[in-house]
Design a protein that fits this description.
This protein has 298 residues and is mainly alpha-helical. The chain has helices at residues 2-15, 105-113, 118-153, 158-175, 186-197, 201-214, 221-240, 244-250, 255-258, 270-273, 287-290, 293-296, and strands spanning 21-26, 45-53, 57-61.
């Protein structure tokens, strides 16, 4: 622990205004003379303090105690202080207990502290009920949209699941007040919506959906999940890039639910979509099923 004692001593000397420096070197064994050859090792390294003296130079001080020196840890016990001889004060006389006049007063006060203001509680309940009635259309519309999205994503046929993802894009654009032509193809709709919303990924998304619907074979579930993930990101981006008034009106605008079946992307009414079909394993598609009018619908 040389470095700890030496540094502590040097800091104390400098604090007192005395110049000091910390020096590191090696101590040769006492049995070896200076003229003998000596190999220094790490155990021979030591640290000490040097202080300058006038006409003498730097004088070494070794503050490190010997290894066999143990610090004194015994603490002297404090001597007990004698207490002065003081006579105890006289015992005060006992005062008679005061008996309350009516024992029922404390109970009545406790009941008053725990009383409920029924008028305030009634106003709070009426306010909650009024807020629930005012916001009921918003929550109801949100539940219908969520159920519609869940049924589209869990359709029994893979092509319907892909078509349902594009139906979410079209319904979101409709509720945001963007006109959508029902006679256009997915790619034409995507190009028009990309021009209005500055979403360049919409044409690629429409191309992926067309490839999955009209391509050979049944699309894999991983591909369908990826399409739905891109669809969810696109619908969120469409709402974020709309104006604040349009975003707020989207929560209460059921335009996509009121569209006729012939103008909807999948040719179904909104209440027929809410009838959740039984999910089954997709059969191997045939050329007739892959090119059916329902699969071609936008």
């Amino acid at each position: 622990d040389d470095e700890q004692y030496a540094v502590a001593m040097a800091l104390m000397l400098r604090h007192l205004g005395i110049g000091a420096r910390v020096v590191m070197g090696f101590y040769p064994p006492e049995a070896d003379s200076v003229a003998d050859e000596w190999v220094a090792t790490g155990t021979d390294a030591h640290v000490w303090v040097e202080v300058p003296f006038n006409e003498v130079g730097w004088v070494a001080f070794d503050p490190t105690p010997d290894r066999d020196r143990q610090p004194e840890t015994s603490v002297p016990k404090p001597q007990p202080k004698p207490r002065p001889q003081v006579q105890p004060p006289p015992i005060p006389p006992k005062e008679p207990l005061e008996v309350p006049e009516r024992l029922g007063d404390d109970t009545a006060d406790a009941d008053d502290d725990w009383s409920i203001d029924w008028m305030v509680l009634r106003r709070i309940l009426l306010g909650i009920a009024a807020a629930g009635l005012l916001t009921a259309p918003i929550w109801l519309l949100a539940l219908v949209r969520a159920q519609r999205r869940r049924i589209r994503r869990n359709a029994a046929v893979a092509a319907d699941r892909l078509s349902g993802s594009w139906a979410e894009i079209v319904d979101t654009a409709t509720d945001l007040g963007m006109p959508v032509e029902r006679n256009q193809t997915r790619r034409e709709m995507a190009a028009a919506l990309a021009e209005r919303t500055s979403l360049d990924e919409l044409p690629n998304l429409a191309a992926h959906i067309d490839h999955g619907v009209f391509g050979d074979g049944t699309p894999r579930d991983e591909f369908i999940d990826q399409v739905w993930t891109q669809t969810a990101a696109a619908t969120v981006a469409m709402r974020q890039r709309a104006s604040r008034i349009t975003r707020l009106s989207w929560w209460v605008r059921p335009t996509s639910l009121a569209r006729p079946a012939v103008e909807r992307p999948n040719g179904k009414t909104w209440y027929s979509e809410l009838r959740r079909p039984r999910r089954a394993t997709d059969p191997a598609p045939t050329s007739a099923s892959a090119m059916s009018p329902r699969s071609r619908s936008l």
